[in-house]
Amino acid sequence: MITIPIRTWLRLALCLMGIPVCAEVPQAHVNPTPTKLPIYYSSDIRFTLISTDDGLSQIRVSSIVQDNLGFMWFGTEHGLNRFDGYTFKVFVHEAKDPNSLSGVNILNLWQMSTA
Fold this sequence. Notes:
Elements (H helix, E strand, L loop, with lengths): L5 H11 L44 E6 L5 E5 L2 E5 L4 E4 L24
Antiparallel strand pairs: 1-2, 2-3, 3-4
């Protein structure tokens, strides 16, 4: 017995009714031209690749913020990482410490205004 997904049956039915769902989907194209990003606080900006070899808890970073002391904070699926420009300090959930993070998957970071 051959099973056909309901989605396939629905597409076939819509095509038979003359509804254009059988049309080809246009191919996406990426513009290879580099985009210049505006720099508000500096005329010279440099990027450095940071990896787990440098102390980052995971290479997949979901959010980044810089606090008013200059620390860079990285939210990952394995904790909150604070970078001082030289080393990382990783904050994770510790079962015996009630002041530790409640979980390790950090999706968003915000900097609160001090003013």
